Amino acid sequence: MTDFLHLSTFLHRPIFDSDGDRIGRVQDFVARLGDNPHPPVVGAVIRIEGRDLFVPIRKIGGLAEGRMTFEGKRVDLRRFERRPGELLLAEDLLARHLINLVRGRLITANDIEIAQIDGKWEVVGVDPGRRPFLRRVLGQSIGQRVKSEAIVDFASIEPFVSHVPTARLRIPYRKLAKLHPAQIADLVEQASHEEGEEIIEAVGLDRELEADVFEELDVEHQLEFLEGRSDVDAARLLSRMEPDNAADLISEIDQDRRLPILEGLGADQQTKVRRLLSYNADTGGGLMNTDFVSVPATATAADALEAIRTSTVPAESLHAVFILDDSGQPIGAASIAPLVRARGTDLALTVARTQLAHVHPHWDLHRISRKMSDFNLTVLPVLDDDHGKMVGVITVDDLLEELLPQGWRREFGMHAVEE
C-alpha cells in the first residue's frame, strides 16, 4: 500500500545543501493543474534570506526520508512568480474548502498528501480529518505518514477558482451536473458567499439545472443570491422554476422588486404565479402546483401514457394521470403501473381509482397531511370551492418540506462540512 507524505511535514522546515548545511526554509510546494487527476509536483518555494525562490522538483532530494536537500549546483535567485495553471498547495488548498464531487460535500483540507508514483511526485489526496490539526499543534511526533484509508482521492476533488487565482479554470459544470440538485444546493449553503457564487455560476450553463438548484436552496440563500441580480435576470430564473416555488420566492423578495420581477415572467408562468400568490402560503392553495397531467374521460390507456411522455410536468407530479369530465371535475386517477399493464385500447378510466380523496385551497397543512396519510397518497388533487374543478396538485415532497422546520437538514447534520 502506498504511503503518502504530509505537506505539513515539510512546510516551514529547513532545506539543506549536499554538505548538510541549512540554506533556507520551505514555504510551499508547486503543482501543475491539467489533465492528470493527480497534479504533478513541479517544485517548491524556498525562502532564503527573506526572498522566495523557486526550486524545481528535479533538484530536490530526501522527500521520502522527510529531510529535504538541494541537489543542484546553484539556486536560481530570481524571485518566485506563479505561472498560469500552477497550484500552490499550502496557499491555495490548505485549510480551505474543497468540493468532494463523489460525495457531494465540502471538505476542509487539513492536510495535502503527496506520493511518488512511477518516479514522479504527485498530489494524490486530501486529509480532512483531525489528525493534521493535532499534528500541527503537538508537533510531528504523532507521525509523518498516513495510510490511504484516511484520505480523499484528489481525483474526486475540485478546488474553488477564487482560491487559485492564476489557474484560469472554472468549476466544471459536467462534474457538478452529475450531482442531484439538492446536493448542489447543500454545497452552496455550506460554502461562503464567494464560493457559492462560483457553484451557481457553473450550473448556470444549464438554465434548467440552475432553476432546480435554486428551488432546493433555503429562503435565506435564495434571497442572498438574488440580491446581486437584476430584475430581468431574476425573472428569467423564476420563469424556469415550478410555479409554486416561484410564488413562494416572490413573496419573500423586497416589496419594491416584486412587481417588476413578476411582470418580467412569461405570460403563462405569470398567470400561474399570480393565482398562487392569491392564496395563503400555509394552505392547500399556497402549497399546490398548478401543473399536472390530465386526460378526458374518453382517453385510452395509450392516450394517458402519451400524455405522460410528452408532458413537461415535474416528475413528482406524474405519479397519477387525472381523468376529468367535461366540466373539469376529476372522476378518476390512474397510476402509471396499471396504465402500462392495460391494453392500449382500454379506457384509462377502467384502470383508474374512481373514489378520489381531495383537498380544497383553503385547507390548512395539518388537514392536508392527514388526508394524504389516511389514503397513502404521494400526489393529491386540489379542487376549487365553488365548482369542484381541479386546480392543482399537492405532492408529498412539497408537503414534507413545508412541515419540517426551517434549516432541518443542518440540524440533523446533513449540511455539516466534513472535517
Protein topology:
Elements: E1 4-6, E2 14-16, E3 22-32, E4 41-48, E5 51-56, E6 60-61, E7 69-70, E8 86-88, H1 89-93, E9 97-100, E10 105-108, E11 111-117, E12 120-127, H2 131-138, E13 145-146, E14 152-153, E15 157-159, H3 173-176, H4 181-190, H5 193-203, H6 207-216, H7 219-226, H8 231-239, H9 243-252, H10 255-263, H11 267-277, H12 284-287, E16 294-296, H13 301-310, E17 320-324, E18 330-335, H14 336-341, H15 365-374, E19 379-383, E20 390-395, H16 396-403, H17 408-411
Parallel strand pairs: 16-17
Antiparallel strand pairs: 1-11, 1-13, 2-3, 3-4, 3-8, 4-5, 6-7, 9-10, 9-15, 11-12, 12-14, 17-18, 19-20
Question: What do these coordinates show?
Answer:
This protein has 419 residues and is of the alpha+beta class. Among the domains are: 4-157, no CATH class; 294-403, CBS-domain. The chain is built from 17 helices and 20 strands. It has helices at residues 89-93, 131-138, 173-176, 181-190, 193-203, 207-216, 219-226, 231-239, 243-252, 255-263, 267-277, 284-287, 301-310, 336-341, 365-374, 396-403, 408-411; strands spanning 4-6, 14-16, 22-32, 41-48, 51-56, 60-61, 69-70, 86-88, 97-100, 105-108, 111-117, 120-127, 145-146, 152-153, 157-159, 294-296, 320-324, 330-335, 379-383, 390-395. The strands form six sheets. It has a five-stranded antiparallel sheet with strand order 13-1-11-12-14. Strands 2, 3, 4, 5 and 8 form a five-stranded antiparallel sheet that branches. Strands 10-9-15 form a three-stranded antiparallel sheet, covered by helices on one side. Strand 2 and strand 3 (22-32) form a beta hairpin. The chain is elongated, with a radius of gyration of 29 Å. Residues 141-148 and 413-417 have low confidence and may be disordered.
